[in-house]
Amino acid sequence: MNDVSVLAAAREIQVPLLAAVLITGCAAKAAYLLGTRTVGGRPGPTATFPLGSRRPAATALCVIELALGAALLLTATLAWASPAALAVRVAVALLFGTGAGALWVLRARRPDAGCGCFGELSTTPVGWRVIMRAVLLCAAALPLIDAPPLHMPASAAQAWLTLGVIVGEVAVIMALSPEISQLLLRLSHADPCEVREVPIARTQSALHASAIWRRYRQFLVTTDAADIWREGCWRFLVYPGMLSSRPVEVVFAVHLAGRGTPVRVGVLDTGANLTEGPLRLSSPVLEKPKNKE
Amino acid sequence: MAWRWLQSHTGKVRHIGDSATPDWYARRALLRAAVFDQDPGQWTRQPAVATSVTVGALVDVRADSLVVDTDRGTEFFALSPTTMTWLGASTSPSALRFGDPLVIRHRTPNPDLPEQRVAERIWARIGRVSGTIVEAYGREFLVDMHGQGRQHVVVPPAASRQIQVRFPRLAPGYLIDVIGTRHRDHLLAVTPATAQPPYHAGHSPVPPMVNGHVVMPVSGSAVWHEPDGEPPGLLGLGYPAIDPESGTELVGGTGCVRLPYLSLGTEVRIRNECSERAAMLPVTSEGVIARQFCDRCVKCGTSPKGRVADLTIAAFVELGGNLEDGCFNATLTTRTG
C-alpha cells in the first residue's frame, strides 16, 4: 500500500461522500423550511438577503443541493470526460467554494447567525470549523473533476483501504461539524413531564394498573370519570362514589413522569359546604412508585 | 340600562363558561386539596377579587362625577383634577358620550367609606385587535383572531406612520396587534401594541430545549384581550399552554415560552413586575393569540421573549397595567411537580 493508492482511493470515494453530504443537507433544510417557515430568523447565508428573498433563496439552495447530489450519483459511473459528469462535478466544486466564501461573509456581517447547512441543527454561530468544513469539501470536489468512473474494489485489500479512507474523511467532517453536538443533544433530550404531551388513555392505564385504583374501585359508582384535568406533571381524574352511604367524589392524581409513577387519591364529601374547604373522609394516600423513572 | 361590550365575535376559542360553569372549575381546587396533604402555601389564598377596577357603560358625566351602569347596577365615581381619561388619546371626561363602554381604575380615599370611589384612570371605547392579517385594502385590514372571529381594522392617516414603524409588513399572512377605539363595525387603530414579529403567523420560533423541570417563575410579557363571550369584569387569563388532551389544537406550537401544560380553571400566580402587584388568577381561556407572538414587553426594562399570559381587561387593570401600553413585564408561577 503506498501513498498513491491512498490518494486514488480518496479521490474515488468523493462521489458518494459528497452526494451524501448534499442530499443530507437538502433533507435537513427541507425539514426546517416545511416545519417553521420563519422568514426572519432563518439561519444561513440567506440571513443576509432582503427579508422577502430569504425563503425563495433557501428553497433554491435546497433544490440545487438535491439536484447536484442526485446528478453526482447518476453520473458516477461515467468517465470524467463525459460532458454531463464534468458539468456536475464542476458545479459541485463551485457550490462548495461559493459556500465557503458566503460563510466567511456571513461570519463578518451576522456573527450571531448559524450556517443553516443542516437546517435547524445548524444554529451555532459560524466559526472557523464550519468554514474549514466548506473549504475541505471544496478541496475534495476539485480532484473529482478528472476522477475515473466509480467501480467496485478489485481486491479485499483495496476494499479495506477504501473503507478506511471513508471512515477517516467522515471523522474529519464530523469533527468540523457543530451539528453533531446538537444532534446528540436532541437524541438524548427528553421533555420534562410538565411540558410533555401525555394521552389521557395512557394516564387511565397507569391509574387502572395501580394498587390504589384496586383499593378504591369498590367505592366508585361508575368507572367513567366525571372530570379530568391537568396541572403540570399531574393529571386529576374524578369519579363519583359512595362511602359509608354518603355520596363522595373520589379524585385520583396520576403523575405523568412515565411508567411506575406515583398515584395519589383523596375523597371529597359532595354534601359538604364548599366555602368551608374540603371535608376529607380519608387521608390522602400516596402510592409510592416501584420503579420511578 | 342593559349594557354590553361593543365587540361581538363568533367565538370558537373555549372559555371557562363554554362547557362547564366557573363553579365547576373552582371545585377542582377543592378536589386537588383533598389529594395533596402538603402545605399549599401561597396557593391557599382566595382568588383575586377586583378591588380597584370597574367595567361598565357610561350613563352620565357630571362636573365632578361619572355615573356608570355595571353588572352590579348604577355606580358613581368621583372625578378629580388628576383623573386621566383616554379616548384614543388623552382627553377630558366631557368628551365621553352616553353608552360608551368604560374601564375605570379607581381608589377609595377613605377605607371606612368604600362606596366613595375616585376615578384615577378612565378608558373609553378601548379595543384591541391581535391576529393575522387575512385581507388588506390600503389602510383597512381584515384580521383573523385565531378562533375569535374576524375583525375589521381601520388605520387613520394620523396613526399610519406610527403603526407602520412597528408593523412594517401590513400584508396578508403577517401578524398585527393594535389598540384603538371601538366603533360599530371596526376598530379605529391609534397605536401599535407591540412590534411586529418577523415571521408568518403560526410559525413562531420553537422554545429552547430545557434540561430538567421548568423553573418557576417564568418571566415574559403579559397582555390583555377584549372580552369574547366572557363577562366584562372577569378576572382571569388566557394561558398559552392548555393541555392538548383537553381538545386544544395547538396550531403553531405552544409559543416561544416553555410553560407547563394546564387546564381551564387552574389557578396561576401572575405578578406585574412594573407595578409590583400580584394576584392569583384562574385560567379562563386559551391563550391562542399569546402563542402567536414571540415578542418582548419593554414597559419597565426588557422582558424575555414570549407572552406568558393574555389577561382579561379587568385583570390587567387590577394588576396595575395601563391598557394603552398593551403589556407589562410579568412573572408567572404555576403549581407543578
Task: Please describe what this structure looks like.
- With 293 residues, chain A is of the alpha+beta class.
- Chain A folds into 2 domains: 186 residues, no CATH class; 93 residues, no CATH class.
- Chain A is built from 9 helices and 5 strands; from the N terminus they run αααααααααβββββ.
- Chain A has a 5-stranded antiparallel β-sheet with strand order 1-2-3-4-5.
- In chain A, a hairpin with a 2-residue loop joins strand 1 and strand 2.
- In chain A, helix 2 runs antiparallel to helix 3, helix 3 runs antiparallel to helix 4 and helix 4 runs antiparallel to helix 5.
- Chain A is elongated and about 95 Å long.
- The C terminus of chain A is likely disordered.
- Chain B has 337 residues and is mainly beta.
- Chain B contains 4 helices and 18 strands.
- Chain B has a 7-stranded mixed β-sheet with strand order 3-2-1-6-7-4-5. A 6-stranded mixed β-barrel of chain B has the order 13-17-14-16-15-18. Chain B has a 5-stranded mixed beta barrel with strand order 8-9-10-12-11.
- In chain B, strand 4 and strand 5 form a beta hairpin.
- The radius of gyration of chain B is 20 Å and the shape is globular.
- Classes of the chains: A alpha+beta (293), B mainly beta (337).
Task: List the SSEs and their pairings.
The complex is a heterodimer of chains A (about 290) and B (about 325).
Chain A: H1 3-12, H2 14-36, H3 51-74, H4 83-109, H5 128-141, H6 156-175, H7 179-188, H8 200-208, H9 211-216, E1 227-231, E2 234-243, E3 246-255, E4 263-269, E5 285-287
Chain B: H1 22-35, E1 53-61, E2 65-70, E3 73-78, E4 84-86, E5 90-91, E6 101-107, E7 118-124, E8 126-137, E9 140-144, E10 150-154, H2 157-166, E11 175-182, E12 187-192, E13 218-225, E14 237-239, E15 267-272, E16 277-286, H3 288-292, E17 307-312, H4 313-318, E18 327-333
Parallel strand pairs in B: 4-7, 10-12, 13-17, 14-16
Antiparallel strand pairs in B: 1-2, 1-6, 2-3, 4-5, 6-7, 8-9, 8-11, 9-10, 11-12, 13-18, 14-17, 15-16, 15-18
